[in-house]
Structure formats: structure tokens, C-alpha cells
């Protein structure tokens, strides 16, 4: 019976552009390779899995580069469900490089902690594969699969220190709220599919129009989908998991979650808003406006009160998320769509560099101080001048001080908002400006500890920083400086405003 | 009432009828049968075996690994059977795809084997 049913289904082998999905193939092959290598090497040789992971990530970057310089500009697979355009390639490169830096950060941490090295890197690569897929997904199903692909390994990584209560708490909280958010989002997606009859985002974009039959169910669907991603990007009031998870997870994993995982959430959100429901801007603009305003303000105010550096960075990353949401809140108005997309991508690139750098400094310094308290960084400059200077650079960049990357990111965000030029836009710009000032309060507080306070317990030993951490610090530090001094390199990606398949383009 | 909801009415009547019929039969049985309980009769029924221990007995945690491994191959079967009926149509492409799929699943088995969970200690 099965055979007769299947025989009625028309089938033909899909024509696959293997060049276009080469990054994903390299990553998938890398995952298999690392599992096998991990199984058959001795305990003392487990470090090769870390090096292999690094090579796999750099290997996956090669096809991304060849795709970027090749014709045609945009490739579309599976009837437009999987698109490789400049937007996707930029973000794929971001995920792969961020992943590489996370591997550098993890190497000593995982090796010395005697954690399960092979499994750690396998899961890290799996999660990155999901992110790389997310950048290309233009269909509700592939977006959802990519989201689960990147989330499920991340839940396990958050609970990696399995004998540590805080790490377990981190994993459980992240998991429970993550699957809850997935469920809400899936419900929204099912409603979208129900009212449009298609999971293809460009088709949904054609169906959901202002002139068409636009009712409560459309609004509910869009709000639910946005709420799901608001959990992923830890926007207030869906942020409650973030500080506990960030504090409990191993620090390299925290860096990974706060940069790569968050960026993946924004990528999916942008794709859905721009390709799927651009015409329903009256629904998502006010909603995102409130989310952005709350996220910036609440994140900042809570960050002011933290004494633990990782918790402070957690709240700071929440508030930075608010700045990324800010241009999206006016993205549907007038000519703001292009600049807003540019601002989000630029912000994600810069944020990845400076936040990973910040975590690299914290990991390097904590090797000596063995503490996460902000006060333990007192006098860091006096006994580790290099780390002190780098930390100042990253903090200043996060605060948005001019010659650094963070400044150009904030500049792009504000420019996009002002492009919209109505009352809503000026309102959110004022809130953003006030928050930039508040943010300097807690970033400046850490700087004061580093430069002006004496070292606690008279710590004066020089900090021995392992090579992998030095490499991570060099990459992120150079990127943060370069993006600020030569903003043209990153603003160039502003011309990617064409999201392939976007409605009306 | 809309047609949509009306079609659910059938479900409601059907459920009600099932409930009534069952309670009627069981009710008659309660009224008619004699009640002479003893210890043997009140024992929990466990497929003819004497029940030992209480209902909250613990089971071996090791079964959990085997259950997981079973799931792997269960899911594999779900995909392989329909695929096998149409193999000629799917051609080389289908063969390679299924090879990759089975290969990745086998990796799970190799992992379990190397980690020593297949041995029953």
C-alpha cells in the first residue's frame, strides 16, 4: 500500500548547486570527522580536536569567499527556500570567524577544566552549522530547523560543567525558556502558514499586504513569531534567562551565546520582517519600538547594579541588543528600510568583534585572579598592561567612543533611525541617546578599577596568557580598531540592502 | 452555529454515547454480581505473576541508553522502508542520500560502542 501511495507522488532529483552549499557541507563533514577523531585518539592527544575544529571553520570560510567573488551575485536553491546572497555570505563569514575566535577562547579553558573536549567541539560546530544555515534560510520550515539546529547544542554547552550547580541551572533555564519560545514561535508560524497557504517567505510577503484581507489572525501570527525571536535575542521582557545562563555557563560558551547565538536570532528576525511580512509594518513597528526601548533601558539600569563582570556583560549585551533592535523599529517607514538593514548588519559585525574581545580579556585575566567580581580587576593595568589597555579599548568600543568600532555601529543605527524622520523615530533616538550615556556609567566603572584601583591582595605577578588567547585578542582587537578607523570596510556592506526575494524589490 | 462547529457535534454525541454505554454495562455488573472479596482477589493483576515489591520500584538507568539507541534505529526504519519501495525512481541520488543518512546514524552507534555503553556490566 505504501508503495502505491508513494508512486503517485511526483518526484525528481533536485538540482543542487554544490558550490552554493559548500560551507555547510564542509561543516557537516567536519563534525563527522571530529567525532571519529575524538573516538580513536588517546586521552593525551584530545587537543587535536580543537585544532581540527579551527581548521574546519577556516575551511568553511574558503567557499564563502569564493562565493562572494563569483557570478552570479545571488544563488537560489530549492525554489527560493535557501538563498545565498551578499547578506547571507556576510553573516556566514561573521558566524564562522566568531566561531573560530570562540574555539581559540575555549582551547585552554576546556583542556584545563578536563571537560569532554571532543564532544564540546562537535556541539560547537553543530551549533555553528545551524547558524550558517540560518543566514540563508528563506522559508519558515528551514528557519525553524536552523533555529533548533543551533539551539539544542547550545543548551548542552550551557550546562557543560556538569558538577557545578550554577552551570546546571544555566542549562536548564536556557533550555526551558528556549523550548517555550520555540513553541510560541511555531504557533505563530503555523498561523502564518494557515492564512497564506505557504511556508515560503517571499510568497507570504505577497499574500500579507495592506490592501488584502488583513485581520487579527495575521497580527497574532506576526507578534508570536517576533516574541519567539525576542527570547533568542534576549529582548526585555523576554530576557530573564540571559543573566543566569551567562553567569553559570563556562565563559567561552557565554561569549558564544552572547555573540553568535544572539546574532543568529537577529538574522532570522530580519529575514522574516524584510522578506516575509514587510507590508504588516503597522503590526511589528510599534511592537519592536516598545521592545527596543525597554531592552535598552532595563538592560542598562540593571547592568549599573552588577558586581560580577559576567553578569554585567550579560546585561550590557541585553542593552546592546536594544540598540540593534532600534533601527528595526522604524525599518518600515519611508526610506529607512535600506539604512536599517545596513545598521543591523554593521552592528552585528562590530558587536561580535568587541564583545568577543571583552570576553577574551575576562578569560585571560581570570586565569590569574580566579574571580568574576569586578573588584578583582583592580590594578589590572599595573601588573598586566597589555590586558588593561585591551580591556579599555573593548569597553570604550562597547560604550561607543569615537575612534573605535562601537562608535560606527551606533552611528549607523542612529542614522537609520533619523532617516525615518517621524515622531516615533525621534522618540526612540532620544531614548537611545540617553541610554548611551547611562551605559558609560558601568563601562567606566570597570575602567576605573583597571586603571586607578590598587590590585587586591597585592597581586603583582605578570599574567601568562596562552597563545590561543593572544591570537583571539589580536583578532578581536584589530577588528575593533580597524572597523572604527576605517568604517568604509564595513559600511560597504550597506550596499547589500537587497535581500533576495524581498517583497517589492 | 456554524457548519464548522456543527461537525464537532457528532464527536460530542459519539463521546456521550460511549460514556453512557460503558457506565450502563459496568453499573449493571455492580448491581448483579455478588461481592465476596478475599486477599487473592484484591491482589494487583500483573499478568498472572505474583506482584512483588511496591508500584514505585526503580528500574535500571542502563536501560535508558539502550532506549536511546533503539530510537536511532527506529527512526532509521521509518525512513528506510518507504525509501526502499521506490528505490528505482530515486536512482543514484536517492542511494547516495540514504548512504549519507545511514552513515551518520552509524556514527552514533560507533560513538556508543567506543564509549563502552554497549557492554552490560
Overview of the molecule:
The complex is a heterodimer of chains A (505) and B (121). Chain A is mainly alpha-helical and 505 residues long. Chain A is 73% helix and 1% strand. Chain A is built from 20 helices and two strands. Chain A has a two-stranded antiparallel ribbon with strand order 1-2. Chain A is globular. With 121 residues, chain B is an all-alpha fold. Helix content of chain B is 71%, strand content 0%. The radius of gyration of chain B is 26 Å and the shape is flat. Classes of the chains: A mainly alpha (505), B mainly alpha (121). Chain A binds chain B through residues 2-3, 6-7, 11, 13, 32, 35-36, 39-40, and chain B through 81-82, 85-86, 89-91, 93-94, 103-104, 107, 110-111, 114.
Which helices and strands, and how do they pair?
The complex is a heterodimer of chains A (505) and B (121).
Chain A: H1 2-8, H2 22-40, H3 48-69, E1 75-77, E2 82-84, H4 86-112, H5 117-136, H6 140-158, H7 165-196, H8 201-207, H9 216-232, H10 241-248, H11 251-276, H12 281-304, H13 309-328, H14 337-369, H15 380-383, H16 385-399, H17 405-420, H18 423-452, H19 467-485, H20 488-491
Antiparallel strand pairs in A: 1-2
Helix pairs in contact in A: 2-3, 2-5, 3-4, 3-5, 4-5, 4-11, 4-14, 4-19, 5-6, 5-11, 6-7, 6-11, 7-9, 7-10, 8-11, 9-11, 9-12, 10-11, 10-13, 11-13, 11-14, 12-13, 12-18, 13-14, 13-17, 13-18, 14-16, 14-17, 14-19, 16-18, 16-19, 17-18, 17-19
Chain B: H1 3-32, H2 39-42, H3 62-85, H4 87-114
Helix pairs in contact in B: 3-4
Q: So how many helices of chain A?
A: 20
What Rg of chain B do the Cα atoms give? 26 Å
Nearest-integer average pLDDT of chain A? 85
Q: Shape of chain B, please?
A: flat
The major sheet of chain A is characterized as: 2 strands, antiparallel
Task: Write down the CATH class of chain B.
Answer: Mainly Alpha
Mean pLDDT of chain B: 84
Extended strand count of chain A = 2
CATH fold-level topology of chain B: Methane Monooxygenase Hydroxylase, Chain G, domain 1
Number of domains of chain A: 1
Amino acid at each position: 500500500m505504501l508503495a502505491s501511495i508513494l508512486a503517485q507522488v511526483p518526484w525528481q532529483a533536485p538540482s543542487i548547486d554544490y558550490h552554493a552549499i559548500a560551507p555547510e557541507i564542509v561543516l557537516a563533514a567536519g563534525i563527522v570527522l571530529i567525532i571519529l577523531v575524538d573516538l580513536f585518539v588517546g586521552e593525551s592527544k584530545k587537543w587535536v580536536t580543537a585544532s581540527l575544529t579551527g581548521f574546519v571553520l577556516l575551511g568553511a570560510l574558503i567557499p564563502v569567499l569564493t562565493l562572494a567573488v563569483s557570478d552570479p551575485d545571488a544563488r537560489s536553491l530549492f525554489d527560493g527556500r535557501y538563498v545565498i546572497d551578499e547578506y547571507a555570505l556576510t553573516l556566514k563569514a561573521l558566524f564562522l570567524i566568531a566561531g573560530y575566535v570562540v574555539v581559540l577562547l575555549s582551547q585552554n579553558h576546556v583542556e584545563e577544566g578536563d571537560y569532554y573536549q571532543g564532544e564540546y567541539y562537535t556541539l560547537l560546530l553543530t551549533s555553528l552549522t545551524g547558524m550558517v544555515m540560518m543566514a540563508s534560510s528563506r522559508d519558515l520550515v528551514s528557519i525553524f530547523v536552523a533555529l533548533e539546529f543551533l539551539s539544542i547544542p547550545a543548551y548542552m554547552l550551557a550546562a557543560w560543567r556538569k558538577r557545578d550547580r550554577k552551570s546546571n541551572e544555566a542549562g536548564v533555564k536556557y533550555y526551558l525558556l528556549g523550548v517555550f519560545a520555540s513553541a510560541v514561535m511555531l504557533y505563530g508560524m503555523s498561523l502564518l502558514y494557515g492564512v497564506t497557504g505557504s511556508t515560503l517567505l517571499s510568497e507570504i510577503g505577497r499574500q500579507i499586504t495592506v490592501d488584502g484581507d488583513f485581520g487579527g489572525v495575521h497580527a497574532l501570527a506576526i507578534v508570536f513569531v517576533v516574541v519567539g525571536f525576542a527570547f533568542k535575542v534576549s529582548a526585555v521582557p523576554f530576557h530573564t534567562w540571559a543573566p543566569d545562563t551567562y553567569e553559570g555557563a563556562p565563559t567561552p560558551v557565554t561569549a558564544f551565546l552572547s555573540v553568535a547565538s544572539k546574532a543568529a536570532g537577529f538574522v532570522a528576525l530580519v529575514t522574516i520582517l524584510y522578506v516575509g511580512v514587510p507590508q504588516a509594518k503597522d503590526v511589528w513597528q510599534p511592537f519592536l519600538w516598545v521592545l527596543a526601548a525597554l531592552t535598552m533601558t532595563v538592560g542598562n539600569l540593571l547592568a549599573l547594579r552588577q558586581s560580577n563582570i559576567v553578569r554585567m556583560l550579560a546585561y550590557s549585551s541585553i542593552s546592546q541588543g536594544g540598540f540593534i533592535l532600534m533601527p528595526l523599529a522604524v525599518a518600515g517607514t519611508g526610506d529607512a528600510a535600506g539604512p536599517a538593514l545596513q545598521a543591523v548588519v554593521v552592528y552585528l559585525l562590530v558587536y561580535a568583534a568587541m564583545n568577543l574581545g571583552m570576553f577574551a580579556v575576562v578569560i585571560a585575566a581570570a586565569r590569574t585572579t580566579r574571580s568574576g567580581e569586578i573588584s578583582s580587576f583592580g590594578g589590572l593595568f599595573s601588573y598586566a598592561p597589555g590586558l588593561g589597555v585591551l580591556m579599555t579599548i573593548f569597553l570604550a568600543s562597547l560604550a561607543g567612543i569615537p575612534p573605535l568600532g562601537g562608535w560606527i555601529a551606533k552611528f549607523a543605527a542612529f542614522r537609520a533611525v533619523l532617516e525615518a524622520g517621524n515622531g516615533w523615530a525621534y522618540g526612540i533616538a532620544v531614548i537611545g541617546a540617553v541610554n548611551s550615556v547611562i551605559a558609560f556609567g558601568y563601562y567606566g566603572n570597570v575602567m576605573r578599577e583597571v586603571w586607578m584601583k590598587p590590585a587586591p591582595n597585592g597581586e603583582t605577578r605578570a599574567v601568562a596568557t596562552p597563545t590561543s588567547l593572544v591570537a583571539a585578542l589580536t583578532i578581536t582587537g584589530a577588528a575593533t580598531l580597524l572597523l572604527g578607523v576605517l568604517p568604509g570596510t564595513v559600511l560597504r556592506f550597506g550596499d547589500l540592502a537587497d535581500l533576495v526575494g524581498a517583497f517589492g524589490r | 452555529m456554524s457548519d464548522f462547529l456543527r461537525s464537532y457535534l457528532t464527536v460530542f454525541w459519539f463521546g456521550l454515547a460511549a460514556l453512557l454505554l460503558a457506565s450502563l454495562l459496568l453499573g449493571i455488573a455492580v448491581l448483579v454480581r455478588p461481592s465476596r472479596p478475599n486477599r487473592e482477589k484484591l491482589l494487583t493483576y500483573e499478568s498472572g505473576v505474583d506482584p512483588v515489591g511496591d508500584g514505585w520500584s526503580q528500574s535500571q538507568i542502563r536501560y535508558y541508553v539502550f532506549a536511546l539507541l533503539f530510537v536511532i534505529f527506529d527512526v532509521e526504519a521509518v525512513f528506510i522502508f518507504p525509501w526502499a519501495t521506490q528505490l528505482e525512481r530515486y536512482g543514484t541520488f536517492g542511494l547516495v542520500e540514504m548512504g549519507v543518512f545511514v552513515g551518520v546514524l552509524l556514527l552514533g552507534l560507533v560513538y556508543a560502542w567506543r564509549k563502552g555503553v554497549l557492554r552490560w556490566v
